[in-house]
Structure formats: C-alpha cells, structure tokens
C-alpha cells in the first residue's frame, strides 16, 4: 500500500540531510510512535512515504502525521542514540524488551572469606558470576554440588567454633580460624574450571577418593563420592558437548517472513547449550536492522551478564555491533559454530511458522475486534483502551479501578486501583458523578504531569451521568477535549448492550453487532473492569470492617491495629492466636487479654 504524504511532510522531506542520525515518527496527537536510525536520513525517511508497504509498516505510515530528526556524527552514535530514545519513549511500533532478564546466576562474593549464592541481580562489585542457568532449580543443584566438592565459606564466619558445615566438609573453616587467601583462590580456580565445562579432572579426582574410601572401609564416604560422580554423569556429561572450547558465547540468528522476524538466542556455557530465548516480533524496517537493534537492547537489560563472544549471521553489521557493545562479534565460516548458527535459524523458522498458524486464529479476536470498536465510534484506529468502574456499599468504602487493553489484549501490568474520598449524597448512596470526577482527575492529571502517553479511548462503565462527569473533567479542567471517551451500557440483566458516545447535548447509543468480535471484546472489557473493581472493593471493605471492630476495643490504638492487621489479616486468625502470639508483636499483656476477651464469641445459656 502506498500513502500520499501531506503538504507539511513533503516540505520537511525536502529539507532532510544526507547524514547519519535518528528519526522520530509522530501521530496526530504528537505521540512518538516509532524511532529509527539511518546512515542517510534523507533516503531512509523518504522511503516511508515514497514506497509501497504492507503489514505493520503500512499501519505505521498510515498513522504518521509528523516527524523530527536528530543528526549524529557517526553511524555508531546513531546506533547508541536510537537505543536511548527507544528506552525513553517506549514507542508502540519499536521492538521493546523487558528491562530485567529474570535469569539466575551463581555468584562467588568478593570479600575476605568468599561464599557462593544464587542471585538474579548482576552488580559491579568485583564478584564472579556464572550463568545464566535455565531456572533456579538448575542453579541450586549446581551450587550444592560445588559446595560439597569445592567448599568456600558456608557459615557467617568468626563463630569461635567449627560450624556444622565444617564438620560435613562443606566449609573451609572461617567460622573458627583464619583461612589463607591462597586456599580460597585455589578453590575458586577449580570452581571456574568446572563451571567452564572442564569436568574431567574433578571426575577423576572424585573416583580416586571413592576408591581410597572404599579401601579403608569408609562406605558412607565412598557412597557420597559415588553420588557426586553420578551427578556429573547425569546432569553435566549427559548434556551434549557442542563446542570444543569453553568460551562463554551467545549465538543470534533469525528468520523473516510476512513482516515478522523470529529471533533465536542460544546461550553456550560450559561448552553446552545452557539456555535459549525465542522472540517473534512484527517489525517496520529490514530484519537485519531489527536484529541489530534487538541485540543492542538485549545487553542493556538489567542482570544480563555479557559473554566473551557473540556469533551472528553474515548479513549483520558485526563491526558496528562490536563497537557499540565492546564485545567480540564474529560470523563463523565453518565447523561446529557455523552449524550452531544454522541450528538457531532452523529453530527460528519453526517458531515463526507456528506463530502464523496461531495468529490466523487470534487476529480477528484481538486487533480486528478493537478496530471494530474504533470504527463504530467514527474514531481513527488506536492501540490502547483504558476502562473504569466504581464499587461501594451505600456510599461506604468507595473505590474505583482501571483496566487497560492494548490491541485487544489485557495489559494487566498497567491496571490501577483507586481508593476514593466518596462524597455521599444524602441517603442515596455514593455520588457517582463525584467519584467519576475524582478518578478521572487523578489518573489523567498524573499522566500529564509525568508526560506519559494518553490512551486512544476511555471507556466508563455506566450511563450519561458518568460519561458527562468524566468529559467535564477532561475538557474543562485538564484541557484534554480531544481525548475520546464513551460509556459502556448494560441492560436490566446486567449484560453489555451498547456504547454511549457524543457531546453532552447529543449523547447517543452506538450499537455493535452482537455477534461481532468487536462486541465480544467490549463485553470482555466491561466484565474485566467489573471483576477487578469488585475484587478490590471486597478486600478494602473486609479490611476496613476488621479495623473498625478492633477500634472498638479499649486500649487498641492505630499502631496496635496496624500490627494486628499485618500479622493476622482476619478476626478468625486473631481469635486463634495465643496470648503469646499477640504479645510477640510488642503488645502488653493487659491489652492482649482485652483483645482476646473482646473477640471471643459469648455463649448464652438458660438455666
């Protein structure tokens, strides 16, 4: 599909320089929706408006209403700037990786008496880190084996007496003596060799020790050594050795089709394939450029320990990557490394083909369904919907909640809960208009203050009262008169029927085909926000009810109530607690007895 650039964009295209730099694409609301880099800004940016496109690129171009450029001195500077801008603005159309990896590592601490730990936090503290491991269980199993074979320090140290681990042969004795630094250094070198895949020497050493123990008729010791040898055979040697050297390396390859790139990452540790990652991403630019950007972001994530070497296909700009990452980046020409690179590509292809089969089933239920809602309201198609609902009991404990759907899917990390002031209107319960004004004011004044992205559509669970109140705040208080908002209407049976939309003097129901995917999505949004707010209200009401009952007990003040609520959480658990349990919270005996007496049910009998 080819798009005709506006007059404004045509003027800006004519002024583009033929220099390296970054470009930022914006939609009609001025929101940055894509960041890219180029060796020649003039050629790259013009290509968006002077060529035919399909898929996600076509959708991007259809939403572009403006752009800006930032010139850099070199292509490397453009590379680095692009990653910085993506992390800052999180544009919708860019590849975005999670900030943390969640991988477990084995850590040998940097201190006088070092010890081993499992950690997910990589910091520059001089410690040794080994990994990543496929899961915490694998890391723990490996660490337990090392602690038995190559012990460091297991206790807190300086106890004045040998600890249990010392007697078990799993501590060098920092508990009661000064262990020479040389002893630790020797153990750490052995650990490093083992974790780098050199298991032959340790296996032979254990075999020799087992034979000596057996000859001395120390059968328990011999059995323990036998189990350690079996660990090596079952968990280390059973894994196929895929490299003749022990260099920690990461391997990247990709497969591209129909606007999607499938990326495979192999983590080679201890001369074995320790772990792999797979990503399938819709992309705007060429797959090679997308993979370059992906790899750059990959090593900017928290707790991601870079390897000693990175292998990539020959189509990538390895020189630029090496300059940016400061890690050797190579393309193998032959041998086992080339075979591993080919294997990564084969896996990437299989994953993408599976993705396409699933997408065919899912597309109409998500993105297509969301587009139906925007089309029914006569709005330009967007990506993000935020929906609100309230809950209270006759005006008591009023709360509100917001759910977020992006491209037809719930984005649960973006959900929010709100405790409201709850202005009561005589005897009629909560003032729904006041509650709506409060939550809309709090939500969108904060987004404006933080310069965060606004949604493409707001949905209020309710009728004209909620819709008018929300629009009043958006237009007259926050100046967001262009932010679309609609009401979700239910019938007497509490089932979704339609949307309310339009100015206050002409709010009209907008019907959706009740058999359409758009209507099903609307139902899901309304049910989800209702579920979320009801769950939140129940928890709030229960806690407030418990707090009020405790408040009636003589001698129980705010601090004591807080201690009880945090520790026990319910009246039944406080009733079940002993006096000692209550006193353990720092509550005096008299008050503890009063609490038990006040919360114990009274049994009446007729005599």
Automatic annotation (TrEMBL):
Residues 200-235 form the UVR domain. GO terms for biological process: nucleotide-excision repair; SOS response. The keyword DNA damage applies. Residues 18-95 form the GIY-YIG domain. It is found in: Cytoplasm. Keywords: Cytoplasm, DNA damage, DNA excision, DNA repair, Excision nuclease, SOS response. Pfam families: GIY-YIG, HHH_5, UVR, UvrC_RNaseH, UvrC_RNaseH_dom. Its main location: cytoplasm. InterPro entries: GIY-YIG_endonuc (IPR000305), GIY-YIG_endonuc_sf (IPR035901), GIY-YIG_UvrC_Cho (IPR047296), RuvA_2-like (IPR010994), UVR_dom (IPR001943), UVR_dom_sf (IPR036876), UvrABC_protein_C (IPR050066), UvrC (IPR004791). CDD domains: GIY-YIG_UvrC_Cho. One of its GO terms (molecular function) is DNA binding. GO terms for cellular component: cytoplasm; excinuclease repair complex. The keyword DNA damage applies. Residues 251-474 form the UvrC family homology region profile domain. Belongs to the UvrC family. The UvrABC repair system catalyzes the recognition and processing of DNA lesions. UvrC both incises the 5' and 3' sides of the lesion. The N-terminal half is responsible for the 3' incision and the C-terminal half is responsible for the 5' incision. HAMAP family: UvrC. NCBIfam families: uvrC. Interacts with UvrB in an incision complex. This is UvrABC system protein C. It comes from Agrilactobacillus composti DSM 18527 = JCM 14202. The gene is uvrC.
